Amino acid sequence: MATLAEDRASPDARTAPIPKAAWFALGVLVLANVLNYLDRFIVSILAQAIKVDLKLDDAELGFLLGTAFAVFYSIVGIAMGGIADRLPRKKVMAFGLLLWSGMTAMGGLATSFGTLAIARIGVGVGEASANPCSQSLAADIFPPQRRALAMALLLSGVFIGSAAALIIGGWFLENWSSACSSVPFAFACGIAPWQAALFGVGLPGIPLALLVLAIREPARPKREEGSATYFVLREFAAALPPFTVLTTYRLHGVAGMMRNLLFAAAITVVSTLLVLLTGDVAQWAAFGLGVYAVVTWGQVQSYRDKPLFRLTFGDPTFVMGISATALVACIGGAVSTWSAPYAMRTFHLSPMEIGASLGVVHTVGAILGVILGGVLTDRWKQRDLRAPLGMTAITLLGTVVFIPLMLFAPGIQGFLAFYFCLSVVSSLWSGGIAAMVQDLVIQRMRGSAAACFSLVSIVVASGTGPYWAGKMSTVTGSLTTGMLSLLVLAPFALVLLWLTARRLPYETVEARMARAVAAGEPAA
Questions:
Q1: Mean pLDDT in each 10-residue stretch from start to end of the chain (524 residues)?
Q2: Of the candidates 304, 337, 354, which is a domain's last residue?
Q3: How high is the pLDDT of residue 68?
Q4: 506 and 412 share a domain?
């Protein structure tokens, strides 16, 4: 098991072979990540069919593509960070896998904007277990010198899953009407192709959950927390309104409760103004709820686990770093989400042609990018601790170049060529940043650190990016304009990366541990 002491391991220890059980565990986690993103992004290729059947506009579609999933993913993910640090991670993840797979399949029963939104919320609730459990397990299984590569391989599931979503979704849209006659149920041909696709990708989660349970989980120091049920309820009470108000009162009295209510009031005012400005009640009510939950989680940790707070939300390096990468993810993720609907509308090809083309191009490009980025970041990091941030800056500049080239390509061949380039550069940063997040905390906090990172990224990227592009498309009548408008975030991301890079060289193992001990962590 990887521990803090391994940061100072001998050269022989650093070159020791990785056990087969570790590679098996990583392989299963990659498969779970594939299904995670397959179920998450399948709605992208199905979006045009959903829009027509359910009579939606692009702003509503953007809400379904991002916000409905993201907000409740964030709220539940708050609790999952602490749960992953204390309970058996493989059991937590297996339960979440069954839940998100079931809710994906239930999306096939949706007949309105509201019912599909509820199903997507359920997917977000289940998938909240994936990142903190899988990244924490991978970080414990692999030593620091191989961690960026392990994280890159784990995150390759992101790109395989999102590409598979395009290919599989495209197949269902084009072939379900003829293929359903071979299904031994009379009602099958009455199911719309997009509904059948959601059923089809949801069911494989059941056997995969059993494989997750077969992982050999590394032992961790025991912490006295009372019963598991009490602990889980306590973690959710710190995340779910209105129990959050009671939690802050219990932890810090009237002062803590009043501070929390002031946060809630400020977020409510801003959300109300955005509703009045845009007319989109569901979007900004949900986004405000997500922001409130994340802020409250930080407040609760500042009272309950001061060392964790000091190394995460209380650390400017951590906050600026994850904020910068959230903006990068917002640009790349939203453009990727809308690429299939854009290509279908612009080039008038069939869903299967678009899905297969984008899926293959994205898979090859993204896997190449994430593995290349992990290897290069590991080597660069030996000379400069700021390597993950440098690679993220390269990603950001690459997206600024390739997004306009892709959108203004005159034909499908040019579009796919630039989409490949975008897939490569937009995935260079992910493995190194995931490893950097783990490096900024001590061992017992790894699940919570992964949760912090993914929560901020999900709220900013998925909670606003797809909606933003869809809203600008609705207002201007141009999806191209909607997607290009995301590039205004690039300068802010670059400034945050630069500010983080100035601080990162001072974030040594000794400095992190000293900061944690000063906040109350046992010195041992």
A1: 42 61 88 92 90 90 85 79 81 92 90 90 88 83 75 79 87 84 63 90 90 84 66 80 88 93 95 93 88 86 90 92 92 89 89 87 86 88 89 95 95 95 91 86 81 79 89 93 96 96 88 90 79
A2: 304
A3: 83
A4: yes
**Do 238 and 351 share a domain, yes or no?**
no
My answer on whether 415 and 457 are in the same domain is: yes
Q: Which domain holds residue 387?
A: 19-179+186-218+305-518
Residues 210 and 278 occupy one common structural domain:
no
Domain membership flag for residue 446:
yes
The torsion region of residue 148 among left (phi > 0), alpha (psi -120 to 50) and beta comes to alpha
Task: Check: CB of residue 283 under 8 Å from CB of residue 113.
Answer: no
The token duo for 437 is 């997040």
- For residue 515 the two structure tokens come to 């900061």
The domain total for the chain is 2
Q: Which of these, 309, 186, 176, lies nearest to 238 by C-alpha position?
A: 309
Name which of 385, 420, 428, 384 is nearest 402 in CA terms. Answer: 420
Nearest to residue 59, comparing CAs of 335, 473, 488?
473
Q: Which are the contacts of 502, defined by CB distance < 8 A and separation ≥ 6?
A: none
- What the block records as the tokens of 500 is 């983080």
Question: Which pLDDT does position 518 carry in this prediction?
Answer: 92
Q: Indicate which CATH number applies to the domain containing 94.
A: 1.20.1250.20
CA pair distance 50, 466, nearest whole angstrom = 15
Which of 285, 304, 323 is a domain's end point?
Answer: 304
Q: What is the model's pTM?
A: 0.78
> Would you say residue 66 lies in a domain?
yes
Is 4 a domain residue? no
pLDDT value for 201 = 93
pLDDT, position 508:
84
Query: How far is the C-alpha of 349 from the C-alpha of 363, rounded, in Å?
Result: 20
**For the chain, how far is it from start to end, CA to CA, in angstroms?**
17
Question: Is residue 9 in some structural domain?
Answer: no
* Residue environment code for 179-217, b if the CB has 16+ CB neighbours within 10 A, otherwise e: ebeeeeeeeeeebbbbbbbbbbbbebbeebbebbeebeb
* Angle at 198 (CA atoms; ends 196, 200), nearest 5 degrees: 70
412 and 370 in a common domain: yes
For residue 261, the model assigns a pLDDT of 95
Asked if residue 213 and residue 111 are part of one domain, the reply reads yes
For residue 40, give the nearest of 447, 407, 488, 461 by alpha carbon: 461
Give the SS3 label for residue 505: helix
What is the C-alpha separation between 9 and 7, in angstroms, rounded? 6
